[in-house]
């Protein structure tokens, strides 16, 4: 096993450790053939699942374009939503200085990065207040090339650029990441000549972090993207193991599936490292959009899907852990632990004479955070609640790429276990259609009429 391997520990889901809410060895043993079949089924689809091959892509074009942006910009703004924003945010938080944008330029590895990730008017108008547009590049990311939020952001910031710098300068301030052939943004790129990067048709939005979507912003801010891919390739190797017991992604999927069947239908990801906070956010989309489904592959109504929840140690010990420890037995926890932090914050011997504080003397923040993580894990287990732990030797480009890929494979395996299509999102499409109707998009009149009628049926006694 690589010294950079993330270790996966599932002792604390076992019934002999936590009691009746855990899994027995016999339950796991009986389900192993199902997990083995899920592994086979996913690899049988590999030709259609382009994200599975991303660890082996040629990154030279991404790096070349990133170098060009590094040379001409002080700020990169990513305009995207869902998979087109959550991954770039997670990677930045995980691999850069915690106050990266506030560091002086000579201590940063590249331009500052902003990912507004919403169409809130104040957020976007406010962002314009802090940007020096002459030294800003916008990376517009959308697979479909039509998503309302992203295209509205593109129109808004393109207009601001055009007003400030003139239309002929737009080409130096926009890089578009989208489908190589389809969509409105592709059409615009072809018509107006902006530089582009491909978001391959076979890579779904929430599985796109390891293509140009995530790699380009990461490379612009100086992250070693080939190292991320090396980590992902290592996770690919481990995920190909046909024996589920030796395959962390498959085992992790199987445990979550079995516990869901026993009523643990909430999955809490709780990193004990600030760097991994936004990875838990990225995981929420991956897990929720992939597994939350109305029908199974045969068309039966099943309404399945565990609810992913993000949490952060130690912060949420003082907000959520009371519920996790004593509330309903409906949760499974993923603890993410880091063995080696990049920065250390030691504590001095400040108050040796004050009994309640002397235990802190000469310790460090990492000791305290690790102790709090272990203590919470123990308390959750003693309260009879299942949890798993993922141990990162350190958070770096290699382990991050490895973890992303492992979670993607875990999601694909889980899709097979639930017998649903993990790669579509019909529930989100319904919301998109209603938005188009409300915004007056051509071709959506009938839907707008239905919504207006429903509004008319709203009863005043229920409005106070
Ligand atoms: O990349 P696009 O096409 O703009 O889509 C953005 C997001 O919208 C969704 O389609 C629905 O939320 C996600 O799957 C995707 O990541």
Automatic annotation (TrEMBL):
A Pfam family of this chain: PGI
Keyword Cytoplasm belongs to the record: yes
Isomerase listed as a keyword: yes
GO molecular function list: isomerase activity
Pathway info: Carbohydrate degradation; glycolysis; D-glyceraldehyde 3-phosphate and glycerone phosphate from D-glucose: step 2/4; Carbohydrate biosynthesis; gluconeogenesis
Catalytic reactions of this protein: alpha-D-glucose 6-phosphate = beta-D-fructose 6-phosphate
Entry keyword set: Cytoplasm, Gluconeogenesis, Glycolysis, Isomerase
The EC number(s) this enzyme carries: 5.3.1.9
Alphabetical list of PROSITE patterns matching this protein: P_GLUCOSE_ISOMERASE_2, P_GLUCOSE_ISOMERASE_3
Superkingdom: Bacteria
Annotated InterPro entries: G6P_Isomerase, Phosphoglucose_isomerase_CS, SIS_dom_sf, SIS_PGI_1, SIS_PGI_2
Enzyme class: isomerase
Active-site residues per Swiss-Prot or TrEMBL entry: 289, 318, 432
Subcellular location field: Cytoplasm
Family: Belongs to the GPI family.
Reported function: Catalyzes the reversible isomerization of glucose-6-phosphate to fructose-6-phosphate.
Protein name: Glucose-6-phosphate isomerase
Name of encoding gene: pgi
């Amino acid at each position: 096993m690589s010294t950079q391997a993330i270790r996966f520990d599932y002792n604390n889901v076992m019934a002999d450790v936590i009691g009746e809410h855990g899994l027995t060895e016999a339950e796991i043993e009986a389900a192993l053939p199902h997990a083995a079949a899920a592994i086979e089924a996913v690899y049988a689809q590999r030709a259609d699942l382009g994200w599975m091959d991303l660890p082996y892509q040629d990154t030279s074009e991404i790096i070349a374009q990133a170098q060009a942006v590094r040379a001409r910009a002080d700020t990169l703004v990513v305009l995207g939503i869902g998979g087109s924003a959550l991954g770039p945010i997670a990677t930045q938080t995980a691999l850069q200085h915690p106050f990266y944008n506030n560091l002086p330029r000579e201590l940063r590895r590249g331009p500052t990065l902003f990912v507004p990730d919403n169409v809130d008017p104040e957020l976007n108008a406010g962002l314009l207040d802090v940007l020096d547009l002459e030294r800003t590049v916008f990376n517009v990311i959308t697979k479909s090339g039509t998503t309302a939020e992203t295209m509205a952001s593109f129109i808004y910031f393109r207009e601001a650029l055009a007003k400030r710098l003139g239309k002929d300068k737009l080409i130096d301030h926009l890089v578009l990441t989208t489908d190589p052939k389809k969509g409105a943004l592709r059409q615009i790129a072809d018509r107006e000549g902006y530089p582009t990067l491909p978001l391959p048709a076979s890579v779904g939005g929430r599985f796109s972090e390891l293509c140009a979507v995530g790699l380009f912003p990461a490379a612009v801010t100086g992250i070693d993207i080939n190292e991320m891919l090396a980590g992902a390739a290592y996770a690919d190797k481990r995920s190909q193991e046909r024996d589920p017991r030796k395959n962390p992604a498959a085992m992790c999927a199987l445990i979550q599936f079995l516990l869901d069947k026993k009523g643990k239908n909430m999955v809490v990801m709780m990193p004990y490292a600030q760097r991994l906070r936004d990875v838990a956010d990225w995981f929420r989309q991956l897990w929720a959009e992939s597994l939350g489904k109305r029908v199974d592959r045969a068309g039966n109504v099943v309404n399945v899907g565990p609810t992913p929840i993000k949490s952060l140690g130690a912060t949420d010990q003082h907000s959520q852990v009371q519920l996790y420890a004593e509330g309903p037995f409906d949760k499974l926890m993923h603890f993410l632990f880091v063995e080696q932090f990049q920065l250390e914050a030691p504590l001095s011997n400040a108050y040796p004479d004050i009994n309640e504080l002397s235990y802190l003397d000469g310790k460090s923040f990492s000791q305290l955070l690790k102790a709090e993580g272990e203590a919470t894990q123990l308390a959750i287990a003693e309260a009879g609640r299942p949890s798993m732990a993922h141990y990162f030797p350190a958070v770096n480009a290699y382990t991050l790429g490895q973890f992303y890929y492992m979670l993607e494979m875990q999601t694909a395996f889980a899709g097979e276990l639930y017998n649903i299509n993990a790669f579509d999102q019909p529930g989100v499409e319904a919301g998109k259609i209603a938005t188009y109707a409300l915004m007056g998009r051509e071709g959506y009149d009938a839907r707008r009429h239905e919504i207006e009628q429903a509004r008319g049926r709203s009863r005043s006694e229920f409005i106070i």
